[in-house]
Amino acid sequence: MKPLSFLLPPLAAAALAAASPAAFAIGVTDATGDYVPGFAGSKAGDLDVAGAFVTYNVATDTFVFEGTMNADIPTASKDLYVWGVDRGQGTARFAANGIDGVLFDSVVVFNADGSGSVNQIVGGASFTLPAGTAKVIGSTIIGEISGSMLPSLGFDKTAYTWNLWPRDGTLASGFTQISDFAPDNSNSPVTVIGAVPEPGTWAMLGVGLGLVGVFRRRRIADR
Fold first, then answer.
1. Does pTM top 0.90 for this prediction?
2. In the chain, which ranges are E strands?
């Protein structure tokens, strides 16, 4: 029997192949182990971003937010995964902490238990996302929200930008909760999807990314 490390890459590739073609050209990758200087929270890998993406589906007016960490995400933890979104009036709200390239005017938060929230920092509205909005698949967390929760502040929704920063919810609220930024000190554009994804697309993509993460960790452990 072949070792697991030989089987995981084809399985991951098969899962990714089942996703929409746009999945191969979306998102960002982030160096692992690049924790924010001074971060004193968990460094087990579940708050260390390996990759992330945000898509916008024009046909359905929905956003999908995804983050893949460097270790499996414990669903019973107090981990928080926060995407800052610039809808047209984003400012550098972390500039005082040396992060002047991350611009946002709203945040989307997924908790490890699948619940979350959307907060329009500019605009004032907020929404509670029930448990099950986000799904955790190994090291990946992924969920979909309506575009009505993120109305434009000048940008077309296809031109929104974002950044992902996980937080350790066991620490006191504030900048010191933040473990990582992806991409580093900058924003990434949303990826525009023009057609409705086939059923299971995002779940399969999440599985594929999760398997890639498992393979990477297994390969490191085997060295």
1. no
2. 28-29, 49-57, 62-69, 79-86, 106-111, 116-119, 126-129, 134-137, 140-146, 161-168, 188-189, 191-193
* Helices 201-222/4-17 angle, 10° precision: 160
Among 149, 77, 139, which Cα is nearest to 108's?
149
Give a three-class secondary structure readout of 62-93: EEEEEEEECCCCCCCCCEEEEEEEECCCCECC
Closest to 210 in 3D by CA, of 127, 138, 133: 138
Q: 């359905």: which residue's tokens?
A: 60
Q: Considering only CA atoms, which of 221, 222, 218, 207 is closest in space to residue 68?
A: 207
CA dist 127 and 183 (Å) reads: 26
pLDDT tens-digit map of 192-203: 997 555 445 555
